[in-house]
Amino acid sequence: MRAMVVRRYGPPEVFEWREVPEPQPKPGQALVRVKAVGINFADLLARLGVYSNTPKAPFIPGLELAGSIESDPTGRFQPGDRVCVLTFFHAYAERIAVNADQLFRVPDGMPFEHAAAIPVNYLTAYHSMFEMGNLRKGDRILITSAAGGVGVAAVQLARARGLITFGTAGPTKQDFLRQIGVDHPIDYTRENFLEVVRRVAPEGIEMAFDAVGGKSFEQSYRCLGPMGRLVVYGFSTVVSPKGRINYVRAAREFLQTPRFKPLPLIDKNIAVIGVHIGKLANKSGVLGPQLEEIFRMYHTGEVKPVIGKTFPLQEAAAAHQYIHDRKNIGKV
Question: pLDDT tens digits for 201-221?
Answer without folding.
Answer: 999 999 999 999 889 999 999
